Amino acid sequence: MDAVRKIGNHVILSLELWFNKGFPHRLNPFYHLGSLTFFFFWIVLVSGIYVFIFFETNVAGSYPSVEYMTHDQWWMAGIMRSLHRYASDAAVISIFIHMFRELFRDRYRGVRWFSWFTGVPTLWLVVILGITGYWLVWDQLAQYVALATAEMVDWIPGIPSAMVFNFLDNQITDRFFTLMAFLHLLGLPVALVFLLWTHVSRISQVDFNPPRPLAIGAFLTLLALSLLKPAVSHAPVQAGHSPVVLNLDWFYLNIYPLMDKMGPGFAWSLSIGFTTLLMLLPWLPPKKEQPCAEVELTQCSGCGQCARDCPYGAISMRKRTDGKKAEFEPTVNPTLCTACGICSGSCVSSSPFRMANATLKSGIEMPWFTMDALRQEVQSKLKALTGQGRVMVFGCEHGVDVTTLGRPEVAVVALPCSGMLPPSMLDYVLKNGADGVLVTGCRDGDCYHRCGNTWTEQRLAGEREPKILKRVDRARVVEFRISDSSGERAALNQRLDAFRRSLQPSA
Ligand code: HEM
Fold first, then answer.
1. 37 lines ligand 1 (CB under 6 A)
2. Ligand 1 centroid vs 30 CA: distance in angstroms?
3. Secondary structure of 389-457 in HEC code, one letter for each residue
4. pLDDT band at 479 (very low <50, low <70, confident <90, very high)
5. What SS3 class is residue 317?
6. For position 435, what pLDDT does the model report?
7. What is the pTM (predicted TM-score) of this model?
8. How many whole angstroms separate alpha carbon 126 and alpha carbon 474?
9. Ligand 1 midpoint to CA 124 (Å)
10. Rg, C-alpha atoms of the chain
11. Residue nearest to atom 20 of ligand 1 (CA)
12. CB of 122 closer than 6 A to ligand 1?
């Protein structure tokens, strides 16, 4: 599985790199796939409501009503129909890339299993939504879908095998049609909303909306497609004839040709087998996790910043238990904590200037990488720095491998996330022998730990607690975000060299 993830990660990072050339990094669609899917669902919802105004939910009326929209009112209902179809297709594309990206970037195992596990059933719901949607048009494609679905359902042992003949003879009743309409318009969408709420319920700071320029670009692309290639129906259903020529929507209806070729048993086995495999992936093999964060009440002011910053909702505040003046204290839920260290970075007690002659203790710590251990590593690496343009690099383990940057003038410290870095550490480093500090890690908008790089950026910009002190010379601090793709490693080296040159006194 490791090898699959490595290859997949390489492919996806290369694609992203290509997009990064055309988009500002923050607007790279790969970094907003979950929220883009939500945006496509909004378009589907609004266009669906409009189309429903003209749609007749009975067997005889549905086809003519869709034809009326497509041809007579093409300028509004027709466009809405096309938007409805293309946004649905776009949602399937973004869901699949979202899924594979989470898999290849290894964000689906360990404590993070829940979003993956609850994401898988959404695939079924979305596909069934699409299938029922095609059914409602009641053209020859709908008849094909109805026949093929009936064949699949008839295959299930215990179900009376009469459905196929009903659809072939156009014996479909208005009641059955209303059931389909109910499923497509209400039942399945409500179930999907509930499932999506569950999907993101264990993480915090969820990115529901893509950046506005990206949303506008995506909408205009779908609109252009709707104008250039409007969605149209097939010929009306002919009783007693099975449909011949079909333009399949491969995003939703791909299982049917497979069933035609291999039989319903194979189609069922493949679908259920693939779903089961996907659901089990977080445990194939399970992730080895570091011990979760621990609260040190003697050092905690109860400010709650760690709880606000935790991207996994693993920290909550409760009434103080140690009788101190502060009203609240943080408590960590070990089933949600990924041990990313972001909470240590957000704790004011993590300042390396504290407890200079004793063991540094923070209000919240990673037992496997304490603030004292970090300070000791920084101190020993500062001592070893020599030459001109001495720089300390702090890098996250999920960006470029920073250890390759080390040399006598450049010291390197790797962190589980750049969000673990308390801003006071930069001040400390500059006061204790380095000429500059370079902070690197995942791309803007693409933090492995969801929010770490955003929090660091905001702390260094003085917009989030704990803020960098005003006395720190900002010309000596640089942030450079880069993904771990071979194409970008050189850029980090170049940035480091340029930064070092800027720190040296000009001759
Ligand atoms: C119906 C479509 C889906 C939508 C709208 C959706 C949306 C989202 C959103 C908004 C996030 C949070 C992104 C963030 O703020 O960091 C997310 C996270 C995630 N999704 Fe989905 N998702 C969908 C389907 C799926 C599927 C099919 C899978 C995989 C089987 C999946 C796996 C994940 C994982 C692993 C995370 C990351 C959780 C973490 O960071 O710990 N999602 N999704």
1. yes
2. 12
3. CCEEEEEECCCCCHHHHCECCEEEEEECCHHHCCHHHHHHHHHCCCCEEEEEECCCCCECCECHHHHHH
4. very high
5. strand
6. 95
7. 0.93
8. 49
9. 15
10. 28
11. 115
12. yes
Which residue is it, tokens 């049917």? 256
Using left for φ > 0, alpha for ψ between -120 and 50, and beta otherwise, residue 400 falls in beta
Structural domains present in the chain: 2-283 (1.20.810.10), 294-503 (no CATH)
pLDDT at residue 506 greater than cutoff 60: no
Nearest CA to ligand 1 atom 12: 206
* pLDDT over 80 at 330, yes or no: yes
Identify the pLDDT of residue 240: 72
Rounded to the nearest whole angstrom, what is the distance from the C-alpha of residue 116 to the centroid of ligand 1? Answer: 7
* pLDDT the model gives residue 203: 95
Distance CA 486, CA 299 (A): 42
Amino acid of residue 273: G
- Could you tell me the distance, in angstroms and rounded to a whole number, from the CA of residue 132 to the centre of ligand 1? 24
Q: Which residue puts its alpha carbon closest to atom 19 of ligand 1?
A: 115
Among the listed residues 178, 150, 165, 224, the one whose alpha carbon sits nearest the alpha carbon of residue 60: 178
CA quadruple 62, 68, 70, 74: dihedral sign: negative
Ligand 1 touching residue 207 (CB < 6 A) = yes
Q: Answer whether the bond into residue 211 is a cis peptide, omega within 30°.
A: no
27 is written with which tokens? 């607007």
Give the DSSP H/E element, type plus range, for residue 502: helix 486-503
Angle, in degrees to the nearest 10, between helices 212-228 and 33-54: 40
Cα 416 to Cα 320: distance, rounded to the nearest angstrom: 29
